[in-house]
Design brief:
The chain is α/β, with parallel strands linked by helices. It has a single domain, classed as TIM Barrel. Helices cover about 25% and strands about 15% of the residues. It contains seven helices and nine strands; from the N terminus they run βαβαβααβαβαββββα. A nine-stranded mixed β-sheet has the order 6-5-4-3-2-1-7-8-9. Strand 4, helix 5 and strand 5 form a beta-alpha-beta unit. Helix 5 runs parallel beside helix 6. The model has no long low-confidence stretch (mean pLDDT about 90).
Length: about 270
């Protein structure tokens, strides 16, 4: 009887971990370390474009939808955008990135957040100047069963303030994390780009204000856009192989060298 030759196991299908939509470049703060420091003069993504983005995302498998900016809660249509995403993508984890200022001051915005979002990520430090607001909203969000993560930049917060935030989070079951200033080209040494970043395998998709797309959370340079939500083959391009670096890989604080000259799509 001939020996049985085992068939190679097929790879599981690719699934995006996170699709992140930048709905505005406006902001109600001007943090020195932020690329949107002059955010008051920014722009909002139109509702029609946001609807088109959702239509495209309905064609690809992914786990969570991250709404960000700028400060997304200052978008004039934030409640409508949030409700639309929740209705059309009911099985996705909805994540909001915010500084919590509007959440603390506007009941309508807080109500929309409680309706639509599962997780709320809050930046809090001296630059944001939002300690009172964060102390006000964390208990409310946790009471509603939302996952809350408070993030502080160590270069922008005192030990006393940092300890107070840690106590707040411990009291209400939120998470407090810290990091260093990390925006591109803010003092970090150049990476050695021998191969592509292995974080590509995490499959994060960033969708910019104009619909341009990058498979990386740190993408910023318009000339590095790989494709857009307007492309008819959008779904195929999301999981296509990559063979080149982004321009900002050299300064990315999260760059982790995979050693691979090209990363193939898994089928």
């Amino acid at each position: 009887m001939p020996a049985l030759v085992p068939h190679p196991r097929p790879h599981p299908p690719r699934v995006l971990k996170t699709a992140k939509i930048k709905i505005t470049t406006k902001c109600n703060r001007s943090c020195d370390f932020c690329i949107f420091a002059d955010g008051a003069h920014g722009e909002n993504m139109p509702l029609e474009l946001f609807s088109t983005v959702l239509t495209r995302l309905e064609t690809v498998p992914f786990r969570q939808l991250h709404i960000n900016g700028g400060e997304p809660t200052v978008h004039r249509d934030f409640p409508a955008l949030s409700d639309a995403a929740r209705t059309r993508l009911p099985d996705k984890v909805m994540v909001l990135g915010t500084n919590a200022l509007t959440l603390a001051r506007n009941r309508r915005i807080m109500a929309a957040t409680l309706r639509a979002y599962d997780r709320v990520l809050i930046g809090c430090d001296d630059e944001h100047g939002n300690y009172d607001e964060v102390h006000a909203v964390v208990p409310r969000l946790r009471e509603a069963g939302k996952t809350v993560i408070v993030n502080s930049v160590l270069e922008g917060i005192s030990e006393t303030r940092c300890a107070a935030l840690a106590r707040l989070c411990a009291t209400y079951g939120a998470v407090h994390v810290t990091n260093h200033v990390h925006h591109i080209d803010v003092g970090q040494p150049a990476n050695e780009l021998r191969g592509l970043c292995d974080r590509y395998l995490d499959q994060h998709l960033m969708i910019e204000m104009d619909g341009s797309c990058y498979r990386c959370f740190n993408a910023m340079a318009k000339e590095d856009s790989e494709f857009s939500i307007w492309d008819e083959d959008f779904a195929a391009k999301v999981f296509a192989p990559r063979g080149e670096h982004y321009r900002f890989c050299l300064r990315c604080h999260e760059y982790t060298d995979s050693g691979a000259a090209a990363l193939p799509a898994r089928t």
